[in-house]
Amino acid sequence: MDEYIQNIGANARKASYKLSYVTTNQKNNFLEILAKSINENQKKIIEANSLDLLEANKGSFDDAFIDRMTLSESNIKSMCNGILQVKDLEDLIGKVINRKKRPSGIEVCQMRVPIGVIGMIYESRPNVTVDSAALSIKAGNAIILRGGSETINSNKYLGKLITEALIESGLPEKAVQIIESTDRMVVDSLIKMDEFVDVIIPRGGKSLIQKITGSATIPVIKHLDGNCHIYVDEFADIDKAVSIVDNSKTQRLGTCNTLESLVVSSKIAEEFLPRIYKIFDQKNIEIRGCKKTKGIIGQIKPAVDQDYFEEYLGPYISCIVVNSLEEAINHINKYSSKHTEAIITANEANGLEFIRAIDSSSVMINASTRFADGFEYGLGAEIGISTDKIHARGPVGLEGLTSLKYIVFGQGEIRS
Asked: What are the structural domains, with CATH classification, of the chain?
């Protein structure tokens, strides 16, 4: 097994050297070919995915997990659109910035360069295979993809299409490699393969990410969970608040940018809470609330402290009523997973105070948390969402997969 993964790593490193200087046209040609191939092979992709779903439905996976691993014509179309959006993005590689003339006569600047080799470990979402390949190639990186065993058939078929597109476009065949082994020992080897891999990006459940973060000897770009909050301010437009909260929670339950915790100003709680409760009740969303919330909506279940930390990924939401913006900010910063938070308000000062004070990777005013996504942010796609503060934060798109190096231009200068 060690020889298997070592070969993959060595091939990725070799491919990364060539990718660092291929032309923009070559990379864009690959993306065009891949989008066309995926579109033309929708039926075969869905057939491969059906094999995975057949096995998954025999297990104990919940509905949210099954939803994340399901490929349909609609999300295959979104995959293709994402690839083409990446193609249309500016190629950052080789871009020179911050050029300055020094008193010594030298000119110092920085150049945008690829990271090198990325190791991607993820669960359930086969679309990650395509999104990651597209972004990595455009950013000049080689990537090693290790999806979950539950989507092995989907990932292998998508990997086949990616390899064919690489060959047809004249890029290194091993620039994108799918680890086809489902042996968990492969992951243990991958996250310690410092000589070949420059960064690890995990996507999946909290336990997976904690395990990788605790064991990896390579830098990790991560987020553990998505406990997203919305604060409905006293100056909120109630109709707008109802619409945004409903969309944030119910548009899709099993994603990391889904609303999990609702914070409501006491000054509008009696007007707002019955309206949102009616919608949630119709959609079978269970509210777990504080004493003040339960005092307004007697039918709900009382919340315990753990509810305010929870990423439910299901039909539940916590709720607390607060007396001030400061109390809302303190509550969110205490319980948040630093992913995405929003305020609904018509008061500009309150909105600006909220976005300055909240310590999360995405902070919004009067918008659904479901917009916290690389595609929606115009990044083409995302390889993940980072709640770290070093290197990349928020949806990790093209720029997040690059680094900078210093470049010096001289005309024979020597240091005195």
From this structure: 2-221+396-409 (3.40.605.10), 228-371 (3.40.309.10)
